[in-house]
Write a structure and sequence with these properties.
By secondary structure, this protein is an all-alpha fold. It is built from five helices and two strands; from the N terminus they run ααβααβα. It has a two-stranded antiparallel sheet.
């Protein structure tokens, strides 16, 4: 196994540890909703970026199983959804707008910096016409949409649970 595949495995192991450590058991259902709703967004968006040849993922964790869909199995279906789970579960909803804006910018910035470092020093990601600011903008927008959906879902869930069925 080459170095890039080891990096992929280490990212997965680290992500699983983060999930176990930072997702409370009572929030597991919320985490699943966040995870699946983000995948619903990232799958078509990631596929468009790869099919348009804006970005490429030369080293895949499962290269033989991922012949048709050349997007990153790790990024689109695992790492980004994990980030969204942590983002939404620890969202500072009772803080002022400036704290919330900084929260979005810091989380998105960290994710973008990690991708740029991975792109520069490994073969896991190759930018063709893609630039770091497209990652920043797309992650920011997708996190906003996903968190808005999660907030709506939670509000509706609370409203339904308060209904008196007598």
């Amino acid at each position: 196994m080459n170095t890039d595949r080891w990096i992929l495995v280490m990212i997965i192991v680290t992500s699983i540890i983060f999930l176990i450590k930072f997702v409370p058991l009572q929030k597991l259902r919320d985490a699943v909703i966040i995870f699946l709703s983000l995948q619903m967004l990232t799958w078509p968006l990631g596929l468009i970026a790869v099919e348009k040849k804006w970005i490429e993922y030369p080293v895949q964790l499962l290269p033989n199983e991922n012949q048709t869909n050349k997007s990153s199995l790790l990024f689109e279906y695992f790492l980004f959804p994990l980030l969204a789970i942590l983002f939404s579960l620890y969202y500072p909803k009772y803080k002022n707008k400036m704290v919330i804006v900084l929260y979005y910018l810091i989380i998105t910035g960290i994710f973008t910096i990690l991708e740029v470092v991975i792109e520069r020093y490994t073969d896991l990601v190759q930018y063709h016409t893609w630039r770091w600011y497209w990652t920043f903008i797309s992650v920011l927008i997708v996190l906003f949409i996903n968190h808005s959906y999660y907030s709506w879902y939670k509000k509706e869930l609370v409203a339904v649970s308060k209904v008196n069925y007598e």
